[in-house]
Amino acid sequence: MLRVKFRSCAEVKTFGYFSDGHYLLHVSDGCKDPTRIYCHNMAYNTPQEFITLESGTENNFAIVYAQRLQYPSGGCSGAVQSTLYKDRGTTYFSKVRLDITTMKILSNVFTFAQTQEGKDISYGKAGDCYSSSNSSECRKGQFKVDLRGTRLHVRDDVTWKVFVYPTSLTMQDYQKSRDGAVVFAKCGGWCGTCEPSGGFIILEPLCSIPAGRYKSCLS
By percentage, how much of the chain surpasses pLDDT 70? Predict the structure, then answer.
């Protein structure tokens, strides 16, 4: 019996599957095992691929902090302004959109995201406009990308950088797990954000190897 290797949700649909749900797609020629991908809008002509974030919304968030100090150069505490930061937002993600051809996360798609306050904040983005102090305690924005359980990881060459006011804006507590499945950082130091350097988070599949360890399929 011929076993079809689906490369996209569109290919899945050509074989008579029209229901939204999880399907096994072969996203890389270098991996024997397929990756579990959620196919959305299967009833339409252009179904879309999403990654279900198995670690939960509490581990996949993007925050641009809302409050601003009245005296931003005076330290990390004190009276705050009555007006909140105009670019604030707190967004939690249960799924993220994947461009299956380039393996880029389309971070500004919020189909399966929930914003608790302010604007929708892109996946992998953080920032604030809280304080211009150099103290690490002043960094109030933060993001977390947690791909554990998806068999995918952030490609090794993906980095983050600061935007808008790089002289005062910095990242703190940047952490990336050894397998690249988890990335976390705080960001702040006046008005701006930290975002992926090339504009996208690019992924690779993980191939299982003995002893429960993993390596990149594409390395």
Answer: 91
